[in-house]
Amino acid sequence: MDDVTGSAASPREGGIARIALAPLEDTSTFADRAYVALKEVIVTLNIYDQPAEVRLDERQLASDLGISRTPVREAMAQLEREGFVRSVPRRGVYVVRKTRAEVIELITAWAALESMAARLITQNAKDEEISQLRKMFVTFENGVPQAQLDEYSEINIRFHQSIISMSHNKVLSDLAENLFTHMRMIRRKTIGEQDRAQRSMRDHMNIIEALEARDTERAEDLVRNHALGLAAHVRLYADYLD
Q1: Ranges for the HTH gntR-type domain (predicted)?
Q2: Given this structure, which CATH class describes domain 100-241?
């Protein structure tokens, strides 16, 4: 008797029936899925507003996710390699709070990548792509009211993501991906401080004008100075990072 498992078999080859299987829709492992879930929670946690260190309980996380502790452990190892958590012997795993100096280094690196992306946009992006940037800020043409800071914060983050993706440079995008996740947390924290939102809005409009005009040098300078302005703000006012 032929050894056939399943309800559908293909024509016989050499007297042996072959079963037919549909491609798997989700080929990710439990560790992959745990990694995505944990990273999403960490990114939305706003760690810089937490009054104390945030400890990750491996047993509780495994229970919450409905999986064993092994994939959770693998996910946390990956997050540690990316700088989101740190393992302390005999104490546990904690969500990383960057120091002021570390945050400034992140922003400085981001300034280099994003300014190059701006240069590439002026050379390679389509007019339709650039026009989408202006549409993001239609709601805020008259400024950024305090009541809309959360909404503006998300659009601000999407704007910077778009600058990177519109460069159409995969290597640059890959380098920026992990860095941006760290940047997302500090951007969300600082946008409501001092007059950051209003200055951010003005900077964005100037950047968009330079990109629309295909003014390569000006666009590159404006984007770099915009990022370094955030670094200067952190240096002067981010006492919570000490």
Answers
A1: 28-98
A2: mainly alpha
* DSSP summary character for residue 167: T
**Best CA proximity match to 30, nearest among 63, 75, 96:** 75
Report the alpha-carbon distance of residue 10 to residue 30 in Å, rounded: 32
CA distance 67 to 144: 44
At 95 the three-state DSSP class reads strand
Note the helical H segments in 85-138.
100-124, 127-135
How far is it, in rounded angstroms, from Cα 70 to Cα 225? 45
Half-sphere exposure of 22 (CA within 13 A, CB side): 3
Gap between the Cα atoms of 176 and 170, Å rounded:
10
**Phi and psi torsions of 20, nearest 5°:** -110, 125
Please indicate whether the domains covering 30-95 and 100-241 agree at the CATH topology level.
no
**pLDDT single digits (tens) 110-158:** 999 999 999 999 999 999 999 999 999 999 988 998 889 999 999 999 9
Query: CA-to-CA distance for 85 and 221, rounded, in angstroms?
Result: 34
Cα separation, 114 vs 119, whole angstroms: 9
* Structural domain spans, the chain: 30-95, 100-241
Q: What is the CATH number of domain 30-95?
A: 1.10.10.10
What are the C-alpha distances in Å from 189 to residues 19, 39, 46? 55, 18, 7
